């Protein structure tokens, strides 16, 4: 047991593929896993943002490589992973959100949200399952971690999102709810290979732009039982747990990291 505890934060010889890597939470996840010894493959469609993130990671002596392609494009996904020999962990953090109220319905926005949350994950798994099987044989387990949202569990409170500037997106929650269910489905079907699939539902982790809106920020704090918003490192620790061997008997679960938001 002591050995397992000591290995909790040891990700040496671990290769992790991270989608949505240059987002606020994606950057923190990339850094957290990298500091613990993992080689991180950072994915996104914006090459400039990827290079900026890589530069910051390299300053901290984190092994990193760039994977600049569209994960909703199966041909691009297949081409990339054909050249990857080793893969142990996938963190699916990609997101396609257009902050629009319900009345501004656009079919394309719903389809884009579903493609980014579900179709892209299916593309990645189809192209990596053999590599994950190989990893689980060697390490006894491999891990897929999907970043969902508290709004995949509950609806946004309309009184908080009362302006066009901070409108809640119906397609966002629907896609994130689908991701939680897809996580459970995948967990059941991949369990025989010791490939674990779990999801995390972050609560209020406002980005820099939202944090500048003090009125809205205060509404988020008041809605949260702990009366504050989250810090990126508070999500990273949960990712580290699910990526590690210490969670080898944990699969098919959704873990809220939301300050109690979904508890009431």
Q: Strand order of the main beta sheet, please?
A: 3-2-1-4-5-6-7
CATH class: Alpha Beta
- Mean pLDDT equals 92
User: Which band does the percent of strand residues land in?
Assistant: 5-15%
Distance between the termini: 36 Å
Please give the CATH architecture: 3-Layer(aba) Sandwich
Share of residues in helices: 40-55%
SSE arrangement, N to C = HEHEHEHEHEHEHHHE
Structural class: alpha/beta
Please tally the β strands and state the result.
Answer: 7
Overall geometric form: globular
Give the domain tally: 1
The CATH superfamily label reads NAD(P)-binding Rossmann-like Domain
CATH topology group: Rossmann fold
Question: How do you describe this structure in short?
Answer:
The protein has 9 helices and 7 strands. By secondary structure, it is an alpha/beta fold. The model has no long low-confidence stretch (mean pLDDT 92).
Would you write up a description of this structure?
By secondary structure, the protein is of the alpha/beta class. It has helices at 2-6, 24-35, 47-59, 74-82, 107-139, 170-190, 208-211, 214-223, 232-243, and strands spanning 15-18, 39-44, 64-68, 89-92, 142-147, 195-202, 254-257. A 7-stranded parallel beta sheet has the order 3-2-1-4-5-6-7, sandwiched between helices. The chain is globular.
């Amino acid at each position: 047991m002591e050995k397992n505890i000591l290995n909790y934060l040891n990700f040496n010889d671990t290769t992790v593929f991270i989608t949505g890597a240059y987002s606020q939470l994606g950057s923190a996840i990339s850094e957290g896993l990298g500091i613990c010894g993992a080689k991180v493959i950072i994915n996104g469609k914006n090459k400039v943002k990827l290079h900026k993130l890589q530069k910051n990671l390299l300053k901290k002596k984190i092994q990193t490589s760039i994977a600049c392609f569209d994960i909703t494009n199966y041909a691009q996904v297949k081409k990339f992973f054909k050249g990857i020999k080793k893969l142990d962990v996938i963190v699916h953090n990609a997101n396609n959100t257009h902050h629009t109220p319900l009345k501004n319905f656009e079919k394309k926005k719903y389809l884009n949200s579903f493609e980014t949350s579900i179709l892209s994950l299916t593309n990645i798994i189809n192209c990596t399952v053999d590599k994950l099987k190989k990893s689980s044989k060697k390490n006894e387990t491999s891990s897929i971690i999907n970043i969902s949202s508290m709004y995949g569990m509950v609806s946004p409170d309309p009184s908080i999102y009362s302006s066009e500037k901070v409108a809640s997106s119906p397609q966002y929650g629907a896609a994130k709810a689908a991701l939680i269910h897809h996580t459970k489905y995948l967990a059941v079907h991949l369990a025989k290979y010791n490939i674990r699939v779990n999801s995390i539902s972050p609560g209020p982790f406002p980005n820099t732009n939202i944090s500048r809106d003090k009125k809205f920020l205060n509404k988020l704090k008041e809605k949260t039982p702990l009366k504050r918003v989250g810090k990126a490192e508070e999500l990273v620790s949960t990712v580290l747990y699910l990526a590690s061997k210490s969670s080898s008997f944990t699969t098919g679960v959704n873990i809220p990291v939301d300050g109690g938001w979904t508890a009431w």
